[in-house]
Please model this.
Amino acid sequence: MKFLAKINIMPREELLDPQGKATILGLNNLGFQGVENLRVGKRIHLQLEAASSDEASAKVQEACNKLLHNPIMEVFEFELVGLN
Model:
């Protein structure tokens, strides 16, 4: 079976997000007022083959833990969608 994992990786809440702060300043300079908090992360779409959704979830979890995110600075979550 084929699956699509939609992975969201974000900076940990307790850490500063300089890219988010710079983006807020940019928005303010463009006239967007009232933005109080903005955090910038990554979105990854990973298509994979697995025998079951449990196996696919385990593979995505392993990929995130071993390469796709930095556990010291980032957290991740993902949604798994079956493809035909």
User: Anything to note?
Assistant: The chain has one domain: 2-83. Strands lie at 2-11, 42-49, 74-83.
